[in-house]
Amino acid sequence: MAKNEVATKKKTEVAISDDALDLIVQNLGDGLSNVTTQDILIPRFQILQPMSPEVSDKTVKNNRPGNIINKANKETFDGDTGIRAIPCEFYRNYVEWEKRGQGTSKAPVNVHPSTSDIMSKTKRDPNDNLNYLPNGNYVDEVANHLVVVLDEDDLPLSKAMITMKVSQMKKSRMWLYMQKTAILKVGERVIQNPPSYSFVYNLTSTLESSGGNPVHGWVIERESMVKKKETLEQCISFAKSFQEGDVGVAADHDEDTTSNSDSMVDVTPPEEKEEVTGVKF
Fold this sequence. Notes:
The chain has 281 residues and is mainly β. It has 3 helices and 16 strands. The radius of gyration is 20 Å and the shape is globular.
């Protein structure tokens, strides 16, 4: 499949008179005066897995495993080319699911905050590496990265959530390490501990093996500094909206039967970072 078959920019440039354009500029935001960030769900961007429902959905274009999908509008991005994203905020939580084969809902039973002690109440099953509660439900530790995805002109294409769990937790932790230890060098100025949205990262996918199962995982590489003021302003606004509780995220669903078969891994110490597959400094 040619890379240019996927994630081509949707053009909105049309012929319009100057008078009509002036009216549009004079009434920016009109018709949406009662819409707040709480009324809008932030889409999730995920890597398609062999068992993802979109892979068998004929209405989804370029839906091969390994490609990246916007779960809201079903737009796909070539996994080899990837997406360019700016991390704006992060949080961890614990998602509780019904035991496989029970119930009909694919939505989580409960979502526990990072301060919860829910994991201390679970027991790992060595057969499937899931953490089970006494009631039979199991709990995933989930890393949630709020990002701004860029288009080819370095302008914001979409605000998004990227979640990582199970085998991808190590990559999440190393991505956070990259952000925490980043240094900005501009001329003679050296800025330590810049905000996470100072850099653009390229996120692609690669085929991995986990527990004998094929799993498409993230490859994360720091690309460049963010150079456009308007892009930085949107990142700052997105981060503040989340911090103030004004961001709604589309619910996660337990739809990938391969991802939970992976074993959870501890964070790799900084001196071992070169051994982490899929994270490039």
